[in-house]
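Thread title: Can someone regenerate the structure for this chain?

I was given the following input by a collaborator and told the matching structure tokens would be attached. They weren't. Posting the sequence so someone can regenerate them.
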Amino acid sequence: MGKLWAIIMVVVATLSAAAPTRADVTLGVIAPRGELVTMTQWSPFAHYLESQLGQPVKLLPVVLGKLEQLLASHGVDYAILNPVMAISAKERFGTELLASLVLPSGAQFGGVIIANPASGITRIADLKGKKVMGLVTSAAGGYLFQAYEVHKAGLKVPEDFASYQVAKKQDDTVLAVKAGIMDAGFIRTGILESMIREGKVKAEDVVVLGRKSGFPEVLSTDLYPEWYLISVTPAGKAAAPKVKAAALALKSDSEAAKAADIKGFTELVDPTGTTQMMKAMKVPPFDK
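Best answer:
Regenerated them for you:
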């Protein structure tokens, strides 16, 4: 019996040593329009990375409220995050910024403040005492960019609102404002245009506040860098040059780019303006 047990232990040890502890590369992508939309849009990019890296890539849509735990536990090797989340992750968890996303509108984006036409809201200052909806307070284009504009207009955010309700996804914000359930809402640039193309809303269903010119989509705030591709785990950082090269080599006419509605990736866009905004709004880890 003792000899048999020794043989079993040797076999188990051999199999354990031969089996990889983590066969897949894991890519997390934030999901402001919901997990299904993110899976549909970004699965081809995950397949593209597989072809470039020569190993499986698992796509993980990231619900905004679960991001911190995922990064702290090294639950993904790489992630595509908005600039606020990416800068916070770099400061707090030592992640590395690799490349910037490029959309048809460019390598920058901003926030849009919309209001129901019957709400009487015509300017940002009118948001005082109104019901407002947006994403969680760590969201860039779904909260922070607009909150900064409201802050500069002299209001306390969100204390000066009658209420602030957190939406599960940005489409819900637009639909709630359209229906008059909420007086106003915060969404990132491009969402309104996408929903108009999809037939979910019409341009006249909402009013855009603080409209700025010089950008191909409606805009209410300053412009900030688009989402960043970052490396998280030690294994991810070790292979970061290869992943970055693959991202930069992505063609705008590829299946992966078309599905994600992007043009590709570019070298890092300067994060200084985003960092300054985060400090002004005391966004962690700049809240000390």
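Residues 35-53 form the longest helix (19 residues).
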